[in-house]
C-alpha cells in the first residue's frame, strides 16, 4: 500500500519515487566503489615498481621493452575502444572541443613540468627530486582520471584502459624510485614517497567516477575525445620518447606491436558472441 501511495504522490506532485531515488543512489555508490577497486590495480603496480627499483633497477633493455609494450597497449586501447565510442556518437563539435581541450591540457602540463625543471622530453626523466615528484603526481592524477573516463564509456573500455595504464605506472613507479635513489633517498623514504604518489591514481579515479557518472551523448563524446588526446600524448610524448633515449633494438620495437596485438586479441575475445 505504501508503494501505491508513493506512486500516487509521484503523479500528483511530480516528485521522484523514493524507492527509485534510493536505488539510483546505491547504483551510483556501487559504480564509484567498483571504479576505485579497479584503480587499485595500477596503484599497486606503481608501488610494486618502486619496490623493485629499491632493491634492483632493471637494465636499459628491460626498461625499453616495457615502455614499448606499454605504448602498444595504450595505443590499441585508444584505437579499439575509445575511438569507436566517439565515432558512434557522430557529433563533430564535441569531438573537436574535447580533443582540443585534451591537447591543451597535456601541453600545459608539459610546460608546467618544464618550468619546474623536472625533465626533458618526458615526465619520467631525471631532474631535481621536488620537481620530479610534482610532475609524477600530476601524471598519476591524470592516469586515475583516465580510468574514470574509461568506465564512463563502459566496463570493457574501463578494463582495457586500466590494463594499459597499469603497465605505464609500473614503469613510472620504477623510474621514480630510481631517481630518488640517485638523489640519495633511503629505501624507506623511497617506498613511502612512491606509495603516497600512487594514491593520486585513486584520487583521479574518484574524481572521474563521480564527476563523469551518468554522462551520455555529446557530453560523453567530448570527455572521451579529451581522454583520447591524453592517451595519445602519453604514447607519443612520454613512453616512446623515453624509450628512444635508450639504445634501440628490433626486439624492443617488436614489443610495441606485441602489446598492440595483445590488446586486440583481448578485445576480440571479450567482444566475441557466446556460442
General description of the model:
It is a single chain. By secondary structure, the protein is an all-alpha fold. It has one domain (34-271). The protein contains nine helices and no strands. It has helices at residues 2-13, 18-55, 60-89, 92-115, 129-153, 155-182, 187-211, 217-243, 250-271. Helix 2 (18-55) runs parallel beside helix 6, helix 2 runs antiparallel to helix 7 and helix 3 (60-89) packs antiparallel against helix 6 (155-182). It is globular.
Please specify the SSE layout and strand pairing.
Elements: H1 2-13, H2 18-55, H3 60-89, H4 92-115, H5 129-153, H6 155-182, H7 187-211, H8 217-243, H9 250-271
Helix pairs in contact: 2-6, 2-7, 3-6, 3-8, 3-9, 4-8, 5-6, 5-7, 5-8, 6-7
Amino acid at each position: 500500500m505504501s508503494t501505491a501511495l508513493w506512486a500516487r504522490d509521484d503523479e500528483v506532485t511530480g516528485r521522484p519515487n523514493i524507492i527509485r531515488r534510493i536505488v539510483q543512489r546505491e547504483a551510483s555508490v556501487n559504480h564509484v566503489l567498483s571504479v576505485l577497486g579497479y584503480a587499485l590495480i595500477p596503484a599497486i603496480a606503481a608501488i610494486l615498481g618502486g619496490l623493485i627499483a629499491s632493491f634492483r633497477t632493471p637494465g636499459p633493455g628491460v626498461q625499453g621493452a616495457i615502455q614499448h609494450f606499454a605504448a602498444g597497449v595504450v595505443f590499441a586501447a585508444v584505437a579499439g575502444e575509445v575511438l569507436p565510442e566517439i565515432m558512434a556518437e557522430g557529433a563533430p563539435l564535441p569531438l573537436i572541443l574535447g580533443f582540443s581541450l585534451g591537447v591543451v591540457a597535456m601541453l600545459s602540463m608539459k610546460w608546467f613540468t618544464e618550468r619546474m625543471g623536472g625533465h626533458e622530453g618526458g615526465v619520467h626523466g631525471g631532474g631535481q627530486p621536488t620537481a620530479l615528484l610534482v610532475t609524477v603526481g600530476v601524471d598519476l592524477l591524470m592516469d586515475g582520471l583516465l580510468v574514470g573516463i574509461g568506465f564512463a564509456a563502459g566496463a570493457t573500455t574501463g578494463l582495457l584502459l586500466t590494463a594499459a595504464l597499469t603497465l605505464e605506472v609500473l614503469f613510472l613507479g620504477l623510474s621514480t624510485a630510481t631517481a630518488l635513489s640517485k638523489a640519495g633517498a633511503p629505501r624507506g623514504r623511497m617506498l613511502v614517497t612512491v606509495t603516497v604518489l600512487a594514491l593520486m591514481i585513486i584520487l583521479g579515479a574518484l574524481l572521474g567516477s563521480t564527476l563523469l557518472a551518468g554522462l551520455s551523448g555529446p557530453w560523453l563524446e567530448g570527455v572521451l575525445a579529451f581522454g583520447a588526446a591524453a592517451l595519445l600524448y602519453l604514447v607519443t610524448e612520454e613512453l616512446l620518447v623515453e624509450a628512444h633515449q635508450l639504445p634501440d633494438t628490433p626486439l624492443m620495437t617488436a614489443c610495441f606491436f606485441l602489446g598492440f596485438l595483445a590488446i586486440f586479441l583481448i578485445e576480440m575475445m571479450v567482444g566475441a558472441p557466446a556460442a
